[in-house]
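Moderator note: this is an archived Q&A kept for reference. The question asked for a predicted structure of one protein chain; the sequence and the answer are reproduced below.
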Amino acid sequence: MTDYRAVKFILGLVAGLLSYCCIVISASGQDTLSTPKVGIFLNEKEKAWVAEHPVLRATNYMSWAPLDYFDGEKPAGFSVDYLNLIAEKIGFKIDYITNDSVEEIHRQLKNHEVDIAHALVINEARKEYLNFTSPYLEMPLYFFGRTGSPPIKTIDDLKGRRIGVINGIASATVIKDYYGFLDLVEQQSVVQAFQSLQDGKIDVFTVVLPVANYTISRNAITGVEVIGESVFPELNQGNPIRLAARSDWPILTQILEKGKAQVSDAEFRALSNKWQAEYRSENDIGLTDEEKNWLANNPIIRVVADPTIPPLEFIDQNGRIRGMAGAFLDEIAGKLNVRFEWVHNKNFSDGMTIFLNGGADVISAIVKTEERQKMMNFTESYISLANVIFTRDDSQVFSTMDGLYGHKLAQIKGFRNTEAIRREYPEIEIVEVDTVSDTLRLLATGEVDATVGDILTSSYAIAQEGYTQLIVAGETPYATELSMAISPKKPLLASAMEKAMQSIPASKKVEISSNWLSVKLDTRQNYTLIWALLAGSVVVILLFLIWAFSLKREVARRQRIEEQLKESKAKAQEANKARSNFLANMSHEIRTPLNAIIGFSEVMSSGVYGDIKEEKYREYIKDIKDSGEHLATVVNDILDLTKIDTGKWEIFEEEFDILNCVQDTIKMLGGQAEEKGISLSLNSDYLKRGVRIFADEHAMKRALINLLSNSLKFTKRGGKVICYLSSEEDGALRIVVKDNGIGIPKEKLDHVLIPFGQGHEDHKQKDAGTGLGLPIVKHLAELHQGHFILESEVGVGTTATFWLPHFRVFQNSKSG
């Protein structure tokens, strides 16, 4: 790495990270900030809010490693760990919503489908739907180009070049807004951008260094280098990243800010050391005196290396560890001034036994799992390889793992993927063997139907053994992410090896990967071997072509299915429209005779045609009237719901006092409450001063009637129904109806918001509803750009909240 690039790395990353990572030391030499008890730094209102929201949803962008990504099993990255630490201190849990599209992530944030975002840069557009905390990290932008490209020092140097930017990222938006005259080429991911740079589709790519270096090392990207730092003044403020929360929950931003303040400098530094390589000179990788002393006293390190997985690792004729893992061990040995010696294990399973019994200090190539992390320490991963399905060319083609149900699979004993397949696909019969060669031998002889292995070692073994009948048949969700493992009894060795691994430059990692991915063998003029290798290469190429052809067929099949789904969707929409029209027409036809039935029953009850002396006949007439009125309510609900579904419900907006509307509705239903012996009351901050809103008064009254009627219907005699209004900090208004009735089962809450959905299966419920009232309220809230929230617990009661946005609310309309 040149002095220029080294200086830029230090200025761009280390200064940005370590400025937040200084450990505060007290006079006694102890860290002055200790981890507080959960949430004690919050005020009572904030504690109550956290208690009401124990689980919050947060973004997880799949392709922004090492800040924010998905490692195949769970969300990971510096920002994910940072948010988890803050959440732990505050006292809530995070449910991450993973997505590979920046636009989709921001759509979810706008629609409040996600509550918290992280690793975000602030801009004006985002401030419309997000509230931001103070920054927690600075990530300067750099320009990457093909090796030997002219440097970027001014904006003029960018003219005439195709510049790759990640679609939806804040920096890309700024560049588009201020420098539209530049030739910008949108890219969907960092990996795609670097591939475009390699292929000559773009000339420059702008990205933050940690993300770039992580992508380069993990994807064996070559032929690219840093050619300059950001020349855009709008982006030269350190590119600070922040946490953000949905704008309708300002209290959440306050809580997050307080949680950030509880993260000690030592904790922040620990996260930084875990995720960000500290770019130091080759002779100084940051070893402590304690680590240096331990290494000086223990210069020989015993290593488990699997001799059966070339070219990842193997043992040469002199007993030295070779292959990709061996090359990384050589780099680490030079930095730590130690020597790694092989413990002569036969295979991986044998090596694990030796390691766990204390006969080895290090495993050179192993996949990290949660179970293994309990028994050993791990370095960062140094290679990631996709796993595919291998089978015979004369057998059934298994394009996915699901196709292997009921078949035999040869897998290596003790490998992580073997256990994952056994756990996730119990219908597959697994035959365990010791080596890659054993799996391929069983497959070639027909003793098993397939094997799942990484493309590199399996293809190498196929070529070496001459198994020309074996092909790549399909893809799997698995990948081989190799790290080095260190005995938990050697913590100083573990920390030293992690520092050594992190200090290996990205260019060196790429060089090692390239050397061994190309599979260098004996260089003597052995023409038999040369022809064998050429034949093997042709086989590998054919395997890829066959795989590509099978994938092409799969894509075509899925396209046909997609067209069928579109056609089915169109038919469903037509059927839905026809249903709505039918319900509307039917309801209109029923109304006329229904009104006559209700009218005649009222006339007969009034005694116009003479008194009805028989008690049972009076009860019959009352039943006829009550049933008619109930049916009329159902018809009206159907008509209203049909109007909403077909978009024919017209909102007649005007300014009016919502408090008067609520009071009128309560008076209207007061008799019903009194008859049932239920307390119906209004409790509001606005009883004296009122509050005016801009909305459809008829629609609001309809929603209130539905909510209050529901509460009265499902609250027993002696119960309470309370209606109250309250405002949020941003001026939004909440209209809440709360009862202590029978409640709704948790699993039914979504169901009751669907037309005709019932909260209870009890057919004996005297006042069972139609299942239309709550869906209508939900639609009316959405027509007013608000939303409807339903919370309930069986035996405790129900709370229904009609939320109106701040721009519809005009407060303090009356004097006190």
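Archived answer notes: The domain at 141-235 is CATH 3.40.190.10 (D-Maltodextrin-Binding Protein; domain 2).
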